[in-house]
């Protein structure tokens, strides 16, 4: 295999890991989803609201964090666009989620940018997730809650 072919294969595998992350998250298949991550993987949320950790480390913590996601959001991820990088194990992607906040029935439409690093086995080692927590908070807030209420959002147990 040439260097160029190896680079293309690594890039394709890294992009596949991110696409599978989105597919399994939307399907609520957390046990399969966590297998996409290295044992000591980091999931980071720079814009995390109150009640959501900014950093989750390790598979057990990842599962605990995502346990209630399927109960809270019925979503699909669409319009996935990858941006080429010099490092084939680094993936930068834009995508949208569209769906519903299950507890309220309100729409959940989110635009995301993710920066993902993978290892030599195409397992995710670091996932930097840029999403707007205000969209999630609004979708999960019942209509009868005043807009000035102290609101947060939780996904995990």
Descriptive notes:
This protein has 5 helices and 6 strands; from the N terminus they run ααββααββββα. The model has no long low-confidence stretch (mean pLDDT 91). The chain has a 6-stranded mixed sheet. 31% of the residues lie in helices and 34% in strands. A hairpin with a 5-residue loop joins strand 5 and strand 6. The longest helix is centred in the N-terminal third of the chain and has 25 residues, at 3-27. By secondary structure, it is an alpha+beta fold. The protein has helices at residues 3-27, 30-33, 59-66, 69-72, 133-140, and strands spanning 37-44, 55-57, 73-83, 90-101, 107-118, 124-130.
Summary, kept brief:
By secondary structure, the protein is an alpha+beta fold. Helix content is 31%, strand content 34%.
Secondary structure blueprint with pairings:
Blueprint: H1 3-27, H2 30-33, E1 37-44, E2 55-57, H3 59-66, H4 69-72, E3 73-83, E4 90-101, E5 107-118, E6 124-130, H5 133-140
Parallel strand pairs: 1-6
Antiparallel strand pairs: 1-2, 3-4, 4-5, 5-6
| Series of secondary-structure elements, N-terminal to C-terminal | HHEEHHEEEEH
What spatial order of strands do you see in the largest sheet? 2-1-6-5-4-3
Mean pLDDT, to the nearest integer, reads: 91
Radius of gyration: 16 Å
**Annotation, overall tally of beta strands:** 6
Enumerate how many helices there are, as a single number: 5
Outline type = elongated
Largest sheet: 6 strands, mixed
Question: Could you say which structural class the secondary elements and strand pairing correspond to?
Answer: alpha+beta
- Assign a percent range to the helix content: 25-40%
Proportion of residues in β-strands:
25-35%
Q: State the separation between the terminal residues, measured CA to CA.
A: 46 Å
């Amino acid at each position: 295999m040439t260097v160029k072919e190896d680079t293309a294969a690594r890039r394709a595998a890294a992009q596949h890991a991110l696409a599978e992350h989105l597919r399994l998250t939307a399907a609520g298949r957390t046990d399969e989803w966590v297998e996409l991550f290295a044992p000591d993987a980091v999931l980071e949320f720079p814009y995390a609201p109150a009640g959501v950790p900014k950093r989750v480390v390790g598979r057990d913590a990842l599962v605990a964090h995502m346990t209630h996601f399927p109960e809270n959001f019925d979503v699909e991820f669409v319009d996935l666009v990858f941006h080429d990088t010099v490092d084939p194990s680094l993936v930068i992607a834009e995508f949208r989620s569209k769906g519903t906040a299950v507890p309220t029935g309100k729409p959940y439409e989110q635009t995301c940018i993710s920066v993902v690093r993978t290892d030599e086995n195409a397992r995710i080692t670091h996932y930097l997730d840029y999403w707007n927590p205000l969209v999630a908070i609004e979708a999960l807030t019942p209509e009868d809650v005043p807009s000035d209420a102290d609101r947060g959002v939780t996904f995990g147990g």
